[in-house]
């Protein structure tokens, strides 16, 4: 049995202070001294030509409405949608993911991810993307920072790690979201198309915002949305990251080849439509272009916040967290299904499949029982993540949840091992950790059943 806090404040994404959060996962320290040389000497790595795309499904998708439906459970558990067969015998997906169900034989799933700390967005975001919690107010390096730092820098003018469209902003608690370089320093931070949260928020507001639960899901039409995103991408490709020195210096940050990687308008219209004429679909296409042009690690944030827009955080509260399961049907799952299926096909057709690992991660699942408004709240005791490409064994399913998707029935996987699994798939042998106030390393503990 896993311990779970269930206060109303935490369920509703509010009411937890930074001080409360920093009590989680802290270690006693003799001052925050660290030595990068010690960390690098301790790391045992070998060369790898593997690339990585991490699709961060901000808000926490319901596992019951995606990869782990329970058709035989009571209606208050199974929810309003049917389960459908996939191309893997005895494995069911939600009817909301028909394209991915048709490609399940190329996916790898872990259905028993869990953690037993506070069920807030930030704990899961940190565990899945760094392998640990913030310690003594200092964040561990994100997967992108650690991997690209260990591999070494890319050729001049080509960023090693790119974040699309920009950083996660407010998900309830003002702490690290697991997407920074931590103590590796500013040189290991991601190249972000829109590094300032305000710019990211404006883009999301234009593309995916809504003023009320009754309004259309997109604030802008499809053509306007994509052209706006194109303008942002082309502007940043020309100037580089706007928070780096002066405009003149920024213009020298990217090589001509790197700038070309950002130009989505070079893609055929039919392919752009295959990914979906929306911010997430075009971000996934951009991620493929970046990998093809030499970027080793790409993080795609599907949302910047969980407030005042349609996200996976389906509390259905009628206020700032008003997303519902009907939004899953109308918008969220179709967008995810189309974009990820197109990315799978595109990577395979371009010969990038075997050297590109893709991970789909949300920071937790949703409560097995519907709340009184027909939504689902935060649930950290059992949820699903998906992988494909690279060394992932096609069609493998690790773990099995119980009859209501409430707990792992077998093979529970702590959330921090998802981060270890990504690093192992990329050819690394160690992860960062803090010991006695110093940045050190530890051996990885990946979910080896995922690999062929």
Give keywords.
452 residues; alpha/beta; 15% strand; globular; disordered N terminus
Strand content: 5-15%
Number of helices: 15
Number of strands: 17
Q: What is the end-to-end distance?
A: 31 Å
User: Averaging pLDDT over every residue, what do you get?
Assistant: 83
What structural class do the secondary elements suggest?
alpha/beta
Q: How would you describe the shape? A: globular
Helix content: 25-40%
Major sheet characteristics: 9 strands, mixed
| Low-confidence parts | 1-11, 17-47, 210-224, 239-251
Rg is 20 Å
Write a compact overview of the structure shown.
With 452 residues, this protein is of the alpha/beta class. It is 31% helix and 15% strand.
Structure report:
Residues 1-11, 17-47, 210-224 and 239-251 have low confidence and may be disordered. It contains 15 helices and 17 strands. The longest helix is centred in the C-terminal third of the chain and has 25 residues, at 325-349. Strands 1, 4, 5, 6, 7, 8, 11, 12 and 15 form a nine-stranded mixed β-sheet that branches. By secondary structure, it is an alpha/beta fold. It starts with 7 loop residues before the first helix and ends in a 9-residue tail after the last strand.
Topology of this protein?
Layout (H helix, E strand, L loop, with lengths): L7 H4 L6 H5 L13 H7 L8 E6 L18 H4 L4 E3 L6 E3 L3 H4 L6 E7 L6 H10 L12 H9 L9 E4 L26 E2 L4 H12 L13 H18 L7 H4 L5 H6 L7 H7 L3 H14 L4 E5 L23 H25 L6 E6 L3 E2 L11 E2 L3 E6 L8 E2 L1 E2 L6 E3 L2 E2 L1 H10 L4 E6 L2 E6 L9
Parallel strand pairs: 1-7, 1-8, 4-12, 4-15, 5-6, 5-7
Antiparallel strand pairs: 2-3, 4-11, 8-11, 9-10, 13-14, 16-17
Helix pairs in contact: 6-15, 13-14
């Amino acid at each position: 049995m896993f311990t779970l806090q269930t206060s109303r404040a935490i369920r509703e994404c509010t009411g937890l202070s930074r001080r409360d959060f920093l009590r989680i996962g802290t270690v006693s320290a003799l001052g925050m001294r660290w030595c990068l040389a010690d960390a690098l000497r301790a790391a045992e790595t070998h060369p790898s030509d593997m690339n990585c795309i991490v699709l961060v499904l901000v808000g926490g998708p319901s596992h019951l409405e995606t990869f782990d439906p329970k058709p035989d459970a009571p209606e208050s558990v199974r929810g309003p949608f049917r389960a459908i067969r996939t191309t893997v015998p005895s494995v069911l997906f939600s009817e909301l993911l028909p394209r991915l169900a048709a490609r399940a034989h190329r996916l790898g799933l872990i259905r028993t991810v869990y953690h037993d700390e506070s069920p807030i967005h930030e704990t899961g975001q940190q565990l899945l993307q760094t392998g640990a919690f913030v310690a003594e107010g200092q964040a561990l390096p994100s997967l992108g920072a650690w991997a690209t730092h260990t591999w070494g820098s890319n050729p001049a003018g080509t960023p090693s790690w790119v974040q699309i469209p920009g950083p996660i902003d407010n998900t309830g608690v003002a702490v690290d979201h697991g997407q920074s370089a931590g103590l590796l320093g500013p040189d290991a931070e991601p190249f972000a198309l829109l590094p300032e949260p305000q710019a990211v928020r404006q883009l999301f507001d234009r593309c995916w915002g809504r003023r009320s639960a009754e309004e259309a899901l997109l604030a802008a039409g499809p053509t306007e949305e994509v052209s706006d995103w194109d303008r942002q991408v082309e502007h940043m490709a020309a100037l580089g990251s706007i928070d780096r020195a002066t405009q003149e210096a920024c213009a020298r940050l990217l090589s001509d080849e790197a700038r070309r990687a950002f130009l989505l308008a070079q893609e055929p219209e039919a392919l752009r439509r295959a990914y979906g004429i929306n911010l997430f679909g075009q971000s996934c296409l951009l991620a493929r272009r970046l990998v093809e042009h030499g970027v080793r690690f790409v993080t795609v944030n599907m949302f910047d916040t969980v407030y005042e827009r349609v996200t996976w955080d389906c509390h259905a509260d009628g206020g700032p967290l008003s997303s519902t399961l009907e939004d899953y049907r109308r918008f969220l799952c179709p967008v995810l299904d189309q974009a990820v299926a197109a990315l799978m096909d595109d990577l395979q057709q371009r010969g990038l499949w075997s050297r590109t690992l893709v991970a789909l991660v949300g920071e937790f699942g949703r409560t097995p029982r519907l709340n009184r408004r027909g939504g689902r709240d935060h649930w950290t005791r059992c949820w699903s993540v998906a992988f494909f490409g690279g060394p992932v064994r096609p069609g493998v399913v690790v773990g099995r949840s119980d009859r209501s998707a409430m707990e792992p029935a077998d093979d529970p996987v702590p959330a921090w091992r998802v981060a270890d699994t990504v690093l192992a798939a990329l050819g690394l042998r160690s992860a960062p950790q803090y010991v006695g106030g110093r940045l050190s390393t530890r051996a990885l503990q990946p979910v080896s059943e995922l690999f062929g």
